[in-house]
Design a protein that fits this description.
Layout: H1 2-8, H2 11-23, E1 53-58, E2 66-69, E3 75-78, E4 81-85, H3 91-102, E5 111-117, E6 125-130, E7 137-139, H4 146-152, E8 165-171, E9 174-180, H5 182-186, E10 202-205
Parallel strand pairs: 6-10
Antiparallel strand pairs: 1-2, 1-5, 3-4, 6-7, 8-9, 8-10
Length: about 210
């Protein structure tokens, strides 16, 4: 599964993730604060990513309104316009760009962009690798916790060493590694082991030593 996941990622991202995994065994016991009841975290503005599906509505111009996927190169093609950069922009930013481009063809265009299928940029995904039932990338959601992530990937495999898992997070521009206790969280139900997630987090779950 690990090889298949790395094979689907861009080369640069796969190399970076491989390096992170090699360093995972050196992680210390530094831990993240647990999630507090009622605690709310403000999510960053959503940025469109390759693979997203977006709906474009042009007021009073139904022939220009359409629903399109964002191509792997991060661009879209819509009626009258080709190769518009969509990835790494918010829906509002893309709408303003389309208005400027369409202004050549129609008077005072008013565009609304709605994301209907979410993938997001790599910086806004949470990646789970190793001994999860379904290791994969997950779009970040506001107030997402480690428990939410584990539910999304189907929990741990029977071979997982959950209490030796590592969370890799960028802090002040530097990658840092934190120990997370997934075994205690999932198998023992210790909610104190739950932690808040941030966009770009990587969860590495090693295999047990027999």
């Amino acid at each position: 599964m690990m090889t298949a996941l790395l094979g689907r990622m861009p080369k640069v991202a796969a190399m970076a993730l491989t390096g992170v995994m090699l360093l995972a065994g050196c992680a210390g016991d530094e831990r993240l604060p647990t999630v507090r009841v009622g605690e709310v975290h403000e999510a960053p503005a959503y940025r469109i990513g390759p693979g997203d599906n977006i709906q474009i509505f042009v007021w009073r111009n139904p022939e220009l309104s359409t629903s399109v996927p964002v191509r792997p190169d991060g661009r879209i093609s819509v009626p009258l316009l080709e190769d518009i950069q969509a990835a790494d922009r918010t829906p509002t930013e893309l709408a303003r760009e389309l208005e400027q481009e369409l202004d050549v063809f129609i008077q005072n265009p008013l565009v609304t962009v709605i994301v209907t299928g979410f993938v997001g940029t790599f910086e806004q995904q949470i990646r789970v690798v190793g001994q999860a039932q379904q290791p994969r990338s997950i779009p970040f959601r506001a107030n997402m916790t480690m428990l939410d992530v584990m539910i999304a990937v189907g929990g741990l495999t029977p071979f997982a060493s959950g209490d030796r898992a590592t969370l890799v997070r960028v802090v002040d521009g530097q990658q840092r590694q934190f120990r997370v206790r997934l075994g205690r969280l999932i198998q023992d139900g210790e909610i104190d082991a739950n932690v808040a997630m941030l966009p770009g987090d990587i969860v590495i779950i090693p295999e047990s030593f027999f």
